[in-house]
Amino acid sequence: MTASEGGTVLIVDDDREVVRTYRRYLEDTYTIREAYDGEDALETLDGDVDVVLLDRLMPGVSGGEVLDRIREREYDVRVAMVTAVDPDFDIVDMGFDDYITKPTTRSELRETIEELLTLDQHATDVREYHSLLVKAAALHEGKSTYELDENPAYAELKSRISDLEATLESEAERLTDDSRFVATLRAIDTSITREETDG
What we know:
Layout: H1 3-6, E1 8-12, H2 16-26, E2 31-35, H3 38-44, E3 51-54, H4 63-72, E4 78-83, E5 98-101, H5 106-119, H6 124-142, H7 145-150, H8 152-170, H9 179-198
Parallel strand pairs: 1-2, 1-3, 3-4, 4-5
């Protein structure tokens, strides 16, 4: 597979060494674009970009602001936040598709990108379900059971997951091609729920 066949990845980080490292991890498979701040990212982004690896904390226009503008402009692009910021409950309403906490590895980056590229083949509800599960898993990793139980944003997140599961169940026939993918996502949700119960 050539780099162009693997898809186009935009790496956004104000640390140039981080960008160079990610490029080395990915350039044998993907076409790589680079941006070193939020404005640069928005200027570099176009309809040919498939995945954005977006640093959350940058001077000037933050990663969160970049994400908001990407969604406002309705680019059909998957976005992974790659950040040293431990997830807090504010991520519930953020429009990212995946969340990676630095430091990350070559294999984690590549697996995340492949998963996000796969999401493009699935229905909107399936992609949203994936995004919600990512948020739940990130919060479960960074918060205590008590914090999760007491936080209304997390309760709302779990409610949204439950509602979307019901929607996916009712759409099962239409989503026949997505059934294996949905089953995998549900296994993730079951794992999260089990850990919460055990905790």
